[in-house]
């Protein structure tokens, strides 16, 4: 019992991080009405910057050099955008490490600057966008900063350059409260820091004119504007404040966890912020601490004998934030504030795709031709693209048609893949190179495939259940928390998914009616993409036609009706709950197909593949291509890192860093949200085509009619 | 004569305030009933309560012989109790015709299977019903347009047509003429009585007194959540309580003093406003 | 449009005294005009009532005046500056206070905090405005630390008025002050706008459904119907011409009878 108590108290360490992130998320929400999924990434980027500045004296600015240094561009000798500023001279042996206070100040200034950038470049332009656009904006921030971390800092682990009081050298409290256990001293310092941050921000909101007007504008933007307060000025100021709190949290936690991980801790921060009803700073702080303590206690409980092995410690730890979020939303979902703005933009258009069959047949033919011509490298690229396209169809149905912003679909792909592997495994070694073997039921390929889809549908319906009560950004919050829970609780789980699930999970070779259609042919013991390409083309084609037909049919109409207006949909006799669940089911089935195809392609899977970053990047490119149409998914699939377009550029110019591709994707995402409202490249080009044609056809007519109008006006 | 809709003591409470206060109201089958009252009187709340969009705190509503208190909004709609909305609330991403088809087809969830193979059959009965609804609201020429491309007045008509396409037994019209100009509202008014010829009863809320007085068989007047008067249009027009509710307290008294002068001035106004 | 005051309209042609000048204004929602070709003005120290049945476009006119809605055609000039659609806060800073139909109070804030947000200008001006507003609405004094959300309807309306007044507005727009209030409270509240106009020289534009209460405090009135101004005149004249008022309110039905 004492062990549990100590574990609970030790949880204030991680809880302090959740609390600080939650505080910042509340600040940003009150200022702008946006729930920022990228808040943790701001903390992570600042933490990296702090370490880099302390160790090397250089500050990396949060952007990359847009002028690539390859090909003919090298010869242009253009002055590139500065990315690195050398602030401190660390080669000087006397001064040694840069001054700590100064370093902190510089880093906090930079996080303030990040806040301004987010306001002016992302959220201010998107202020009148529909919810989807705002969620996409904050996902863009998350992706962009994560990519920048990878590009500038290599995403590697950083060791301790923080405050001496907060690092491991601070020692531990031995025999805490006479319970015979130790707790790191730093946990208490971090707890203190979280409380100090809470008090400062709370007092600012409670007593200062800035704080009162922020609360006022949060509650009633129109009222604040009528009293002379600029809502956008307040939003900007709060973005700066929120980012500074994030930066401070990042610096303080540098020794505790790796910066890249801090970005993922945003899930706990979201739970904390919801705990505070997205409005209360003390509430968010308390919520963060409670989540941290319960998670720590939960992990301790897994040591008990009676605890079922099927619930692993890391799974329990990562399930707690999800549980907190679900509980808060379930108990208070109706009362959570939804920030109204003076005007709200409309949803992206979702036109019917006509001539589906012809288009798809043509696309299939071309793809087939390409796969014949291409060498195996290109077949690998083609299959990557096709799998991404299939996955993006699942987003087209759920987000594009039905308007339900679920971020967990990629995890459902992973779940299906792992279930299928487990069902097909028979304890035999599949390839010479495999390190582990999975025990399993040894089911035949087709049966396991179908079963995996069924499991995915059931899980998808479970995810859909909260969507019956909550909507919009709240669903996005639940599902982003579910991503981490799925990875750690369901996938990384040897009793459930087999021994391979914690390392590289070997994938069996799929045998469809006597044909090996995977990326590896056991007969020849060689990598062979030919049949796999063909198989994928057929699957992608079938799913694509199905999704396009869905849009044209009665169910598609009902999905769009729900997306446009749930109240009116119910008045038109639509059973909104049932239709939503149907959408989750269909989308999850498609996501499951994509997941199984990944397992077919690769010799082994790792759970990292299905973590938040991968899923959000796919969503980013699906949105960039066009979230509402089948063609959008096809365009999006070609754009992803490892897809046709970047690889083509890579071959013909020079290979492009994955981080840069994702960073460019993130920028494109935000630009797309603003410019095309998520209709994407696919629809944009149709519009451009139409407008150009219209202009070419009748420029003289337009002029004359204008003149006519002028004359009429004069008369 | 039977009543298609009947409420008894229907009460809706928002934070201690009775938005609808023991409302007793009946819509006889096949009749055209109106509900009027000043802004904030609780008219829309009443429709919301009848259609299941706000919970009632007391009283009951009987529709087509059955107590509908426990039904969800979509179930009420499927049973033939169909409403329109004061604000547009159209499906913006669907064409005008698709807006109607959504309401017209009784889709089952498993239809998605035949949908995916583009095998779902057209139902000619339903299609012709949709054609009729488009026709009566004068929307034939814009059936394939998006609602957002239409002027405001015609968008309101799409909302009414969508309700008509759902084969209502009782159609509840929530301010269909709001935001229409005088001409548009007269066109709408000209068609409203036709609805009665198609096996439905009509319940109308509107601010436009001229419209309500000219089309309704019977009118209820709501103020501060209570029914303060009811009667035929002629009775309502003469009711001092109604004038008081609309023009403020003293209107009734002053009106009583008005005599001949009124008629002469009236023509003057008529000319000028034209 | 019927203009009952022909001689006064020529007299008011000089724009210099006009705090609000609306010319040929069309405005509405989603690009669709709800009001058409509206012309009105408010001069210094004047109370102007904007009357008409519900849905006539009165609120739309006020929203466009304070910059919450975009003008489709025509112009709105407030205190010599064009009203800026994209920035209602700038119009507010010029000295326009708008009490909207929904009152737009901050329910989560205390009465005092609500009032504090309305303060503008130098410290001494702030204090003067604050005290003057509370002198006009003394019932608020004991409620200073109560949350606005816990006030009764009448108290909320008083707070909304007070919040507008503490900024020492040069132009005051009040939309449906009586909405949801018992007539007895309205009779107490409405005369305050008269006092403000008399004491501070502010121009006041009120939208009111209690026609006769409104005409008691107003100098002039405009009557709107179906998005257009159909009647205009001094308050005395309009009180005299009850018949015309009723015709605008109760719609074309009376036309039919008479014709």
Describe the structure.
- The complex is a heterotrimer of chains A (715), B (274) and C (259).
- Chain A has 2 domains: 2-38 and 111-335, no CATH class; 356-689, ABC transporter involved in vitamin B12 uptake, BtuC (Orthogonal Bundle).
- Helices cover 67% and strands 3% of the residues of chain A.
- Chain A is built from 30 helices and 10 strands.
- Chain A has helices spanning 2-10, 12-32, 39-56, 73-76, 100-123, 131-153, 185-207, 209-219, 221-226, 231-252, 259-264, 266-275, 281-301, 313-332, 356-373, 376-401, 409-424, 445-469, 473-491, 494-497, 530-552, 554-564, 566-571, 576-601, 612-625, 630-639, 644-652, 658-675, 680-697, 699-714; strands at 58-60, 84-86, 172-173, 183-184, 505-506, 511-512, 515-516, 520-521, 526-527, 604-605.
- In chain A, helix 5 (100-123) packs across helix 10, helix 12 (266-275) packs across helix 13 and helix 14 packs antiparallel against helix 19 (473-491).
- Chain B is α/β, with parallel strands linked by helices and 274 residues long.
- Chain B has 2 domains: 3-80 and 168-238, 3-Layer(aba) Sandwich (Rossmann fold), CATH 3.40.50.300; 89-166, no CATH class.
- Helices cover 39% and strands 23% of the residues of chain B.
- Chain B is built from 12 helices and 10 strands.
- In chain B, the strands form 2 sheets. Chain B has a 6-stranded mixed sheet, sandwiched between helices.
- In chain B, helix 7 (182-192) links the parallel strand 7 and strand 8.
- In chain B, helix 5 (124-136) runs antiparallel to helix 6 (152-165) and helix 10 crosses helix 11 (251-257).
- The radius of gyration of chain B is 20 Å and the shape is globular.
- The termini of chain B are far apart.
- By secondary structure, chain C is α/β, with parallel strands linked by helices.
- Chain C contains 12 helices and 11 strands.
- Chain C has helices at 6-11, 58-66, 88-94, 111-118, 123-136, 153-165, 183-189, 191-200, 211-217, 235-240, 242-250, 253-258; strands at 2-3, 18-29, 32-43, 47-51, 71-78, 81-82, 96-99, 171-175, 203-207, 220-225, 228-234.
- In chain C, the strands form 2 sheets. Chain C has a 7-stranded mixed sheet with strand order 1-11-10-4-9-8-7, sandwiched between helices. Chain C has a 4-stranded antiparallel sheet with strand order 3-2-5-6, covered by helices on one side.
- In chain C, a hairpin with a 2-residue loop joins strand 10 (220-225) and strand 11 (228-234).
- In chain C, helix 4 (111-118) packs parallel to helix 6.
- Chains in contact: A-B, A-C, B-C.
């Amino acid at each position: 019992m004492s062990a549990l108590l100590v574990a609970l108290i030790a949880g204030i360490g991680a809880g302090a991080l959740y609390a600080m992130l939650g505080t910042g998320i509340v600040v940003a929400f009150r200022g702008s009405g946006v729930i920022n999924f990228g808040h943790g990434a701001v903390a992570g980027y600042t933490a990296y910057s702090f370490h880099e500045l302390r160790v090397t004296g250089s500050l990396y600015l949060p952007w990359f050099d847009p002028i690539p240094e390859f090909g003919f561009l090298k010869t242009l000798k253009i002055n590139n955008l500065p990315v690195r500023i050398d602030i401190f001279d660390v080669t000087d042996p006397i001064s040694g490490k840069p001054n700590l206070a100064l370093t902190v100040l510089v880093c906090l200034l930079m996080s303030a600057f990040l806040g301004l950038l987010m306001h002016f470049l992302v959220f201010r332009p998107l202020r009148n966008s529909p919810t989807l656009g705002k969620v996409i904006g904050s996902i863009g921030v998350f992706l962009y900063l994560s990519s920048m971390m990878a590009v500038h800092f290599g995403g590697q682990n950083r060791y301790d350059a923080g405050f001496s009081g907060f690092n491991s050298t601070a020692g531990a409290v031995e025999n805490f409260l006479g319970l015979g256990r130790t707790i790191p001293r730093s946990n208490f310092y971090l707890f203190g820091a979280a409380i100090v941050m809470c008090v400062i921000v709370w007092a600012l909101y409670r007593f200062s004119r800035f704080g009162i007007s922020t609360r006022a504008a949060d509650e009633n933007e129109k009222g604040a504007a009528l009293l002379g307060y600029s809502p956008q000025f307040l939003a900007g100021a709060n973005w700066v404040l929120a980012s500074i709190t994030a930066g401070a949290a990042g610096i303080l936690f540098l020794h505790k966890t790796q910066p890249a991980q801090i970005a993922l801790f945003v899930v706990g921060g979201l739970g904390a912020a919801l705990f505070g009803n997205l409005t209360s700073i003390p509430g968010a702080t308390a919520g963060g601490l409670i989540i941290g303590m319960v998670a720590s206690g939960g992990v301790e409980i897994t040591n008990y004998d009676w605890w079922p092995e099927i619930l692993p410690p890391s799974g329990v730890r990562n399930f707690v934030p999800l549980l907190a979020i679900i509980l808060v939303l379930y108990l208070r979902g109706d009362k959570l504030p939804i920030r109204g703005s003076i005007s709200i933009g409309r949803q992206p258009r979702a036109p019917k795709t006509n001539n589906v069959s012809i288009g798809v047949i043509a696309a299939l033919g071309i793809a087939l031709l390409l796969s014949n011509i291409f060498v195996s490298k290109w077949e690998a690229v083609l299959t990557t693209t096709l799998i991404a396209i299939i996955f993006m169809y699942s987003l087209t149905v759920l987000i594009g048609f039905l308007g339900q912003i679920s971020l967990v679909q990629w995890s459902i792909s992973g779940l299906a893949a792992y279930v299928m592997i487990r069902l097909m495994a028979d304890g035999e070694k599949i390839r010479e190179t495999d390190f582990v073997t999975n025990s399993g039921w040894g089911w035949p390929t087709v049966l396991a495939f179908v079963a995996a889809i069924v499991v995915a549908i059931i899980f998808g319906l479970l995810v859909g259940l909260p969507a019956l009560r909550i909507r919009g950004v709240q669903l996005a919050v639940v599902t982003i928390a579910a991503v981490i829970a799925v990875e750690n609780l369901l996938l990384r789980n040897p009793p459930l998914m087999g021994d391979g699930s914690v390392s590289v999970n070997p994938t069996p070779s799929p045998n469809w009616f006597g044909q090996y259609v995977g990326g590896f042919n056991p007969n020849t013991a060689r990598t062979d993409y030919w049949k796999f390409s063909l198989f994928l083309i057929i699957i992608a084609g079938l799913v694509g036609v199905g999704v396009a037909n869905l849009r044209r049919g009665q169910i598609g109409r009902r999905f769009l009706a729900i997306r446009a207006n749930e109240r009116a949909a119910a008045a038109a006799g639509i059973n909104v709950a049932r239709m939503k669940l149907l959408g989750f089911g269909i989308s999850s089935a498609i996501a499951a197909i994509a997941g199984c195809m990944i397992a077919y392609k690769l010799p082994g899977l790792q759970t990292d593949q299905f973590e938040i970053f991968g899923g959000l990047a796919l969503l980013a490119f699906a949105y960039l291509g066009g979230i509402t149409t089948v063609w959008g998914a096809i365009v999006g699939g070609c754009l992803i890192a490892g897809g046709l377009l970047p690889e083509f550029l890579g071959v013909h110019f020079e290979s492009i860093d994955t981080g840069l591709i994702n960073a460019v994707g993130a920028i494109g995402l935000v630009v797309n949200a603003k410019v095309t409202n998520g209709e994407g490249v696919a629809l944009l080009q149709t519009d451009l085509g139409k407008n150009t044609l219209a202009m070419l056809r009748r420029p003289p007519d337009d002029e004359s009619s204008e003149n006519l109008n002028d004359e009429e006006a004069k008369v | 004569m039977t009543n298609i809709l009947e409420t008894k003591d229907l009460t809706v409470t928002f934070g201690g305030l009775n938005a609808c206060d023991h409302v007793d109201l009946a819509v006889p089958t096949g009749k055209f009933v109106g509900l009027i009252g000043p802004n904030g009187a609780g008219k829309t709340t009443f429709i919301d309560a009848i259609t299941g969009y706000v919970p009632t705190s007391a009283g009951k509503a009987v529709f087509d012989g059955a107590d509908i208190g426990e039904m969800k909004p979509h179930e009420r709609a499927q049973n033939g109790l169909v409403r329109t909305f004061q604000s547009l609330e159209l499906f913006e991403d669907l064409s005008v015709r698709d807006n109607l088809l959504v309401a017209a087809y009784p889709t089952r969830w498993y239809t998605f299977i035949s949908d995916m193979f583009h095998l779902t059959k057209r139902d000619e009965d339903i299609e012709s019903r949709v054609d009729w609804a488009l026709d009566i609201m004068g929307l034939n020429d814009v059936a394939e347009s998006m609602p957002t491309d239409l002027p405001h007045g015609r968008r309101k008509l799409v909302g009414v047509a969508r309700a008509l396409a759902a084969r209502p037994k009782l159609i509840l019209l929530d301010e269909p003429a709001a935001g229409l100009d005088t001409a548009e509202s007269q066109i709408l008014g000209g068609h409203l009585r036709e609805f009665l010829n198609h096996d439905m009863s009509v319940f109308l809320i509107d601010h436009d007194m001229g419209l309500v007085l000219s089309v309704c068989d019977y009118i209820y007047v709501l103020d501060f959540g209570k029914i303060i008067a009811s009667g035929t249009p002629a009775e309502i027009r003469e009711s001092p309580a109604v004038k008081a509710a609309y023009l403020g307290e003293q209107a009734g008294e002053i009106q009583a003093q008005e005599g001949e002068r009124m008629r002469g001035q009236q023509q003057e106004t008529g000319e000028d406003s034209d | 449009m019927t203009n009952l005051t022909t001689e006064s309209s020529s007299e008011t042609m000089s724009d210099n005294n006009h705090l609000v000048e609306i010319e040929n204004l069309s405005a509405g929602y989603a690009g669709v005009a709800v009001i058409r070709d509206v012309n009105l003005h408010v001069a210094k120290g004047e109370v102007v009532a904007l009357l008409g049945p519900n849905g006539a476009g009165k609120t739309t006119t006020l929203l466009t005046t304070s910059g919450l809605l975009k003008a489709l055609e025509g112009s709105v000039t407030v205190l010599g500056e064009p009203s800026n659609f994209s920035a209602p806060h700038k119009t507010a800073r010029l000295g326009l206070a708008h009490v909207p139909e929904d009152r737009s109070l901050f329910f989560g804030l205390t009465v005092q905090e609500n009032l504090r947000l309305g303060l503008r200008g130098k410290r001494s001006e702030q204090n003067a405005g604050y005290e003057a507003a509370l002198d006009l609405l003394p019932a608020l004094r004991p409620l200073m630390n109560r949350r606005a959300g816990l006030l009764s309807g009448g108290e909320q309306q008083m707070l909304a008025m007070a919040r507008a007044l503490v900024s020492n507005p040069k132009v005051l727009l009040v939309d449906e002050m009586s909405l949801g209030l018992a007539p007895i409270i309205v009779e107490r509240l409405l005369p305050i706008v008269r006092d403000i106009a008399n004491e501070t020289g502010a121009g006041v534009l009120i939208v009111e459904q209690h026609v006769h209460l409104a005409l008691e405090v107003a100098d002039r009135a405009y009557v709107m119907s179906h998005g257009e101004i159909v009647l205009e005149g001094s308050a005395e004249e309009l009180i005299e011409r009850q018949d015309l008022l009723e015709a605008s309110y109760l719609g074309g039905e009376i036309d039919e009878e008479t014709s």
